[in-house]
Write a structure and sequence with these properties.
Blueprint: H1 8-16, H2 25-47, H3 51-75, H4 77-80, H5 84-107, H6 112-136, H7 143-170
Length: about 170
């Protein structure tokens, strides 16, 4: 069905007054969510107009992810529910991303457009591996673990989408 295109201020007012139609109210919520997601992506596009900055941001995010999986979450393993072997596996992926990004930034042997496409693909692959690992550990994965994995996957997919957009714009 058609999701109405509505101004978020009007939508919030309609929702606050309780006037959202019952059957179509979920579409109004989806419209609001889609609007704010699009605004977020536009903001990110403006913030990282430089492909070099985007690659550096990705490398910094990969470093945080590697430290989280390889150090922090290993110590919190009982709270998360992933095995240390799985956490070390998930820490290895961002470590490779960092090496690739540093190679691109320091040598400039490949174009930024190509590098962003490769990194976007790596990021999507990391998300798939993260979800496969999470489902493989679903019996022991805690609510905190699920929240962490799903939150990270959503964040990395948003970044991959942004990288792909910037790479397409570069040609």
């Amino acid at each position: 069905e058609h999701v109405p295109n509505i101004c978020p201020t009007s939508l919030l007012k309609i929702m606050a007054e309780g006037k959202a139609p019952g059957r179509n109210s979920k579409y109004l919520y989806y419209s609001l969510l889609a609007y704010y997601f699009q605004r977020f992506m536009t903001l990110l596009d403006a913030l990282v107009g430089s492909p070099r900055k985007l690659l550096m941001m990705d490398a910094a995010g990969a470093a945080v992810s590697a430290v989280m999986h390889g150090v922090v979450l290993v110590h919190l393993q009982p709270c998360i529910g992933l095995s240390t072997k799985a956490l070390y596996l998930l820490a290895a992926f961002p470590s490779v991303f960092i090496q690739f990004t540093l190679m691109v930034l320091l040598t400039r042997r490949v174009s930024y457009a190509y590098a962003l496409r490769v990194i976007a693909g790596f990021n999507v692959g990391f998300c798939v591996v993260s979800l496969v690992v999470a489902f493989a550990h679903r019996g022991g994965l805690t609510t905190v673990g699920w929240c962490y994995v799903l939150g990270e996957v959503l964040l990395v997919l948003a970044l991959a989408t942004l990288e792909w957009r910037v790479a397409r714009r570069l040609g």
